[in-house]
Amino acid sequence: MALELQDRDRLLQELDRLRRDVNALVDEVAKGIIGQERVLGLILAAGFSRGHCLLVGVPGLAKTSMVKAVAASLDLPFKRIQFTPDLMPSDITGTEVLSEEEGRRAFRFVPGPLFASVILADEINRTPPKTQAALLEAMQERQVTVSSHTHELPDPFLVIATQNPIEQEGTYELPEAQQDRFMFQIEVNYPTLQEEEKILTLAGTSSNWGIRPVMSGERVREIQDLIQHVHCSNYMLSYVARLVRATRPGDAFAPAYINELVEWGAGPRAGQFLIHGGKALAAMDGRPTVSPADIQALAIPVLRHRVAPNFQAQADGVTSVDLIKRILEETPIPKS
Question: What pTM does this model have?
Answer without folding.
Answer: 0.89
